[in-house]
Structure to design on (581 residues):
């Protein structure tokens, strides 16, 4: 049992209903899970099998397909794919670390509810409520060279013009900044929820024992936030792979592949080049990487939580 | 000393929060400025102001249709999800038998394997089910929700068993137990899930972009993307701001009105 569950006072006593004969125990469980399982089979498990199959069929047209690893050979020989994978690693690190650190810092600073902190929270959470394509529309203007908002105010400070989205050195950074702006509020809400589960008397006791702010954070608050990290980190990892809407609408992966990400590459191959085999192979590799990374982070965090308890 | 640190933290948080609000401030100000003013970037212009950009955006885009399609999509997804996640959440929170943990892990896989990631096989599935280019086709992959099941499992677990045990002694069946005993107590979890679900699907872009082709089936995000690229090409930034506002406004307004509820629904400490 994790700390979070213990803090919430949950008990793990089995219900009387589960004490019947083994055959009868399956019935309610099956009935309750069946609706979800049907849709999961159709749109989660089925597609994984299907995409592996699609990735192994060589030849662009159905019918002349032979089975083999040709798509994977083409994929690994494609410099655009290598660039997209590398960019995605930078994008993941560049979005997850700053937005989680910021979110936790803001949650700690704004955890006490009064009118002022509520207003500040509102500002930080607002980007969560708009589509990433809407954020892209706003930032298309903010980052516009010359008359755009950033240049307009930087010029007043005497700083020169930068073509944020047009310069291969800055474009990925600009895309990362938009994602951090968009996600921080979302993670902050989860941290606020986690902080609300930290018993105040525990913190007070530590204060009386002479523990400083940093010490209380490290020894009490962060360990108790373990379960929160347990689902915020996987969500953040997933976002790093799936949030590419602004790349689709703002940069189209450019300039010269500087903002191409894995899912954008897949979208390009599937929607623009009609190369299902290559898109499927890229999907298999991306999903495998995501599963490995997420399960690893999940394990590490879970283990951390158990050690602390 | 302690008070000072707290004030500093609050000051830094205030600065960050104000910076966070700048794109919204620009959107609001620019959307009200007619024509193509040279200082369109200014957050404190002198005027004049008008609602002309909204009229322009409304007539050059298909906003009524996009709103309707988006509402049908979000409502349909949520209605089915509330049923599926309550049922599965209960099973994982309260029932126990060998292999249940394994099935739960299998459920959690869906947290990762979301439709935009599986574009290629999911499109093939939609075609074979004759659901390509239909709103039902966009909705169907979301009818099961691992996130919802996870949230409801946690919510149900936080509810003391005494209520259920009393109802069970009175002979209540599992469906009655879920609907009349647990769900009323699980409202914070249900509200939190609904907010997250509607927000996610209102804002989703890549999957509807791929799964729909007819203009008559488009949703707000896809409509905005084509609308904005047209207006940007003409440097009509006021119109872009107005169109973006039209897409973002419904959720933003709901959030501002029910702000405390929204935030506190995520902070479901409330086992009262």
């Amino acid at each position: 049992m994790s700390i979070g569950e213990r803090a919430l006072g949950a008990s793990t006593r089995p219900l009387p209903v589960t004490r019947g004969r083994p055959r009868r125990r399956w019935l309610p469980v099956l009935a309750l899970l069946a609706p979800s399982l049907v849709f999961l089979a159709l749109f989660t498990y089925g597609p994984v099998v299907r995409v592996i199959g699609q990735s192994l069929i060589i030849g662009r047209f159905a019918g002349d397909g032979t089975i083999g690893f040709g798509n994977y050979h083409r994929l690994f020989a494609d410099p655009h794919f290598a660039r997209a994978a590398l960019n995605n690693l930078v994008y993941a690190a560049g979005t997850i670390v700053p937005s989680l650190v910021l979110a936790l810092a803001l949650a700690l600073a704004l955890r006490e509810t009064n009118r002022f902190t509520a207003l500040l929270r509102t500002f930080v959470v607002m980007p969560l409520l708009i589509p990433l394509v809407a954020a892209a529309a706003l930032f298309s203007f903010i980052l516009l060279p010359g008359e755009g908002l950033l240049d307009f105010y930087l010029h007043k400070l005497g700083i020169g013009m930068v073509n944020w989205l047009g310069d291969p050195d800055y474009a990925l950074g600009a895309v990362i900044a938009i994602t951090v702006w968009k996600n921080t509020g979302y993670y902050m809400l989860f941290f606020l929820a986690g902080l609300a589960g930290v018993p105040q008397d525990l913190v007070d006791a530590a204060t009386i024992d002479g523990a400083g702010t940093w010490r209380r954070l490290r020894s009490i608050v962060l360990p108790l936030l373990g379960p929160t990290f347990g689902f915020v980190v996987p969500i953040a990892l997933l976002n790093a792979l799936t949030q590419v809407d602004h790349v689709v609408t703002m940069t189209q992966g450019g300039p010269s592949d500087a903002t191409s990400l894995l899912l954008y590459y897949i979208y390009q191959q599937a929607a623009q080049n009609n190369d299902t085999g290559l898109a499927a192979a890229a999907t298999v590799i991306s999903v495998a990487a995501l599963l490995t990374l997420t399960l690893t982070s999940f394990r590490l965090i879970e283990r951390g939580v158990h050690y602390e308890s | 000393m302690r008070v000072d640190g707290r004030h500093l933290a609050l000051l830094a948080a205030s600065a960050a929060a104000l910076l966070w609000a700048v794109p919204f401030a620009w959107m609001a100000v620019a959307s009200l400025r007619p024509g193509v003013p040279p200082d369109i970037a200014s957050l404190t212009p002198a005027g004049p102001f008008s609602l002309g950009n909204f009229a322009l955006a409304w007539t050059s885009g298909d906003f009524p249709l996009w709103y309707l399609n988006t509402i049908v999509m979000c409502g349909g997804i949520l209605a089915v999800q509330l049923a599926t996640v309550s049922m599965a959440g209960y099973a994982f929170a309260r029932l126990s038998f060998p292999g249940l943990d394994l099935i739960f892990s299998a459920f959690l896989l869906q947290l990762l394997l979301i439709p935009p990631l599986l574009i290629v096989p999911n499109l093939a599935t939609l075609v074979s089910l004759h659901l390509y280019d239909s709103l039902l086709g966009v909705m169907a992959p979301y009818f099961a929700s691992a996130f919802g099941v996870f949230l409801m499992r946690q919510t149900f677990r936080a509810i003391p068993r005494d209520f259920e045990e009393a109802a069970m002694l009175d002979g209540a069946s599992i469906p009655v137990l879920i609907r009349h005993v647990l769900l009323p107590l699980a409202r914070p979890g249900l509200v939190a899930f609904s907010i997250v679900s509607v927000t996610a699907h209102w804002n989703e872009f890549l999957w509807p972009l791929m799964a729909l082709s007819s203009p008559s089936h488009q949703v707000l995000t896809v409509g905005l993307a084509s609308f904005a690229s047209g207006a940007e090409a003409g440097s009509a930034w006021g119109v872009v701001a107005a169109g973006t506002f039209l897409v973002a406004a419904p959720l933003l307004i709901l959030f501002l009105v029910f702000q405390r509820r929204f935030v506190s629904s995520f902070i479901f400490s409330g086992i009262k």
